[in-house]
Design a protein that fits this description.
The chain has helices spanning about 10-25, 60-85, 105-115; strands at about 30-35, 50-55, 120-125, 130-135, 140-145, 150-155, 160-165, 170-175, 180-190, 195-205, 210-220, 225-230, 235-240. It has about 240 residues and is α+β, with helices and mostly antiparallel strands. It has a single domain (about 5-240), classed as Calycin beta-barrel core domain (Lipocalin, Beta Barrel), CATH 2.40.128.20. The longest helix has 23 residues, at about 60-85.
């Protein structure tokens, strides 16, 4: 199903990388556009500290992609049955051809976009009474100025950014061009030692969103001449740094 779709994804990845560069250059130029009042009771949680990705507790992208495809296939069959016509692609998956809603390229691109923007293995979070900055390894930082009962909204060169508390969860939402929306929902485990970030990517080219949950655990960085990082194939890998 996805062999042809893979050829179109580099355009999506390239566009996203370009958006990254614009965001890095324009982040200091953001201007507040207003705040919208929310009804939920805010309860700020302290996310401060250093965090590393725990692959064993995080979502598997292939499993989530398979679930998305099943959901879209079911939607397709329900629509076809409602219309009294059964349509099916040659691969038996989706009826959308290239450039249409739910095409193989669009579905795969959505999943790969989610993987690309959740690949940070290490986080450093700084937080005070009204501000939080989430520094992500090999990615630009997420930042939010928050106040009780309000969402904070700013306009950036990329589009609109909205952030704020929904009860005990901190939400970052980015409304980007071309019908793309990215949302990060951060929540802390009961013991305060595990951080879950649920990242959802929404596109007007796919009728269901794609969500990946990444789980991080606290760690204390040590200046001992070693640099460690998590990898998919070999787990935690440490190398000696030059002194």
């Amino acid at each position: 199903m996805y062999s042809s779709a893979r050829h179109s994804f580099p355009r999506i990845a390239l566009a996203w990388l370009c958006l990254f560069l614009v965001a890095c250059g324009g982040q200091q130029q953001r201007q507040q556009q207003g705040r919208s009042v929310i009804n939920q009771t805010d309860a700020a949680v302290d996310f401060s500290g250093f965090w590393e990705l725990d692959y064993s507790q995080s979502d598997n992208i292939q499993v989530n992609l398979n679930a998305l495809v099943r959901d879209l296939r079911q939607q397709n069959q329900q629509r076809a049955q409602a219309a009294g016509v059964y349509q099916q692609s040659a691969s038996g998956m989706l009826i959308g051809g290239p450039g249409t809603t739910n095409s193989g390229a669009s579905v795969l691109g959505l999943a790969q976009m989610a993987e690309l923007i959740t690949q940070s293995q290490l986080l450093e979070i700084e937080q005070d009474t009204h501000d939080i900055t989430v520094k992500r390894e090999e990615d630009f930082a997420l930042s939010c100025e928050f106040y009780p009962g309000q969402y904070h909204t700013v306009e950036t060169p990329l589009g609109r950014e909205i952030c704020g508390w929904d009860r005990h969860q901190l939400i970052f939402k980015m409304l980007l061009p071309e019908g793309l929306t990215i949302q990060h929902v951060m929540s802390l485990g009961p013991d305060g030692q595990r951080l879950n970030i649920a990242t959802t990517v929404i596109s007007d080219r796919v009728t269901s969103p794609f969500t990946l949950n990444r789980v991080y655990v606290r760690y204390e960085p040590q200046d001992n001449g070693y640099s460690c990082k998590m990898t998919i194939s070999r787990g935690r890998v440490c190398t000696t740094e030059a002194q």
